[in-house]
Amino acid sequence: MSIFSKNPKLAALFRTHSSQIAAAEGLSPEVIEAAVNAGTMVILANPAHQAVTPTVIGQPAKVKVNANIGTSMFVTDVAMEMEKVALCKSAGAHTLMDLSTAGDLEAIRAAILSATDLPLGTVPLYGVTQRHIVKGGDPSDFTVAEILTEIAKQAEAGVDFMTLHCGITRRGVELAAEGGRITGIVSRGGSILGRWMRRHDAENPFLTHYDDILDICLAHNVTISLGDGLRPGCGADAGDGAQWEEVINLGRLAARAKAHGVQTMIEGPGHVPLHLVQGQIQGIKRLTDGAPLYVLGPLTTDCAPGYDHIAGAIGGALAAYFGADFLCYLTPAEHLTLPNVADVRAGIKASLVAAQSAETALGRPLAVARDRDMSKARAELDWEAMTELSLDPDMVRERRGAHSKEKECAMCGAMCAMRMMTGDHFEAAPASGDGCNAKK
């Protein structure tokens, strides 16, 4: 039986929106349906999320970009987070994740769901943990019942996908602790569960109660993003036994979910040196039977605080070229502080550059056509077309602003290479103090 036959809400959603989804991706409904049934593509959309835009993740659909937002225990500015929600849509992100850890998490989540049609993801473990922290308890004091209740509550509210760290095991935690890792466990969810397993002398409750979680997610068409609790937190830790032990588990869990009718994605590596990206991506894809791969970065160097959005875009372009489907952005604030609105914008744009670069290299028709059209517009000095074809039209307008009446750019002026051989007549204006100011 197919996923669609086991998941009535997904089937109904696809019947209603198949033409819209297919047109957005430049694919046929039949290709999308076959890929979803194969487990190599998911459609993010919880019917309880009013007016959500169903969004496809997985090859051969477009590479998508996620933006993380949310409060922290040091910075709890809900108004700023809501400003980020609006910005993420206008800047081109395809999905959002609310990673809030402070304030009224339920109210924040409800406000975000009401304010955006982008699919929304969460990490339910944060809500469970926060309740114990604010009471002065240990972060790992929660019960299994609390976990299942939180997942169900968020599914009923309309959350479209959830990061659930179901693949981390007691063995994996020990491998991370004893395997010579420099940074240990850097995933918040992974570290919380590692602490829980040690304090309770028990196996990961997300794993032992996986069937209960599947039942909840099936009832609401929530896509499970199988969390990478043991992802490498620095380049030196990439590819160790702890990481691969978890990846193997994630592949098995994805197969169980597919048999149950639940859609899943796999979360991938965080810090991976440039020369290891190909092997990491292809290895994860192979071990998870081609399930959609959702990568953080990956960061190709650990030495770029303040510029991690660039390091992540370098890794993201490579990752998408070798098979990743979904890029989780990084911002200039990564490893330093909570991102502000400007950081969020910079992170989205960097990941969009990575996605476009990969898709062009892969020969995806829409991406290739966009690059070609931009080249033609440049050759013709068609600034309006260049602006609209760019990944950041607002940036083009801003940088062009002071010389927007000129035919050429302010770098070349009368020495414009594009016009030099066309026979156009140049009438050079007097040079200004900041460079040439040639006019046609």
Q: How many domains is the backbone divided into?
A: 3
CATH C-level label of the largest domain: Alpha Beta
Strands, count: 10
CATH architecture descriptor name of the largest domain: Alpha-Beta Barrel
Average of per-residue pLDDT values = 95
Low-pLDDT runs of 5+ residues are 433-440
Biggest sheet: strands side by side, in what order?
3-4-5-6-7-8-9-10
CATH superfamily descriptor of the largest domain: Radical SAM ThiC family, central domain
Structural shape: globular
Number of DSSP helical runs = 19
Please report the distance between the alpha carbons of the first and last residues.
67 Å
Largest sheet: 8 strands, parallel, barrel
Helix content: 40-55%
Query: Strand fraction band?
Result: 5-15%
What does this entry look like structurally?
Helix content is 50%, strand content 9%. The chain has helices at residues 3-6, 8-25, 29-38, 78-91, 105-115, 124-134, 144-157, 170-178, 188-200, 205-208, 210-220, 241-260, 277-287, 308-321, 341-361, 365-379, 383-389, 393-400, 417-420; strands at 42-44, 55-57, 64-69, 95-98, 120-122, 161-164, 223-226, 264-267, 293-296, 326-328. The strands form two sheets. An eight-stranded parallel beta barrel has the order 3-4-5-6-7-8-9-10, surrounded by six helices. Strand 7, helix 12 and strand 8 (264-267) form a beta-alpha-beta unit. Helix 4 runs parallel beside helix 5 (105-115). The longest helix has 21 residues, at 341-361. It starts with a helix and ends in a 20-residue tail after the last helix. Mean pLDDT is 95; it is low at 433-440.
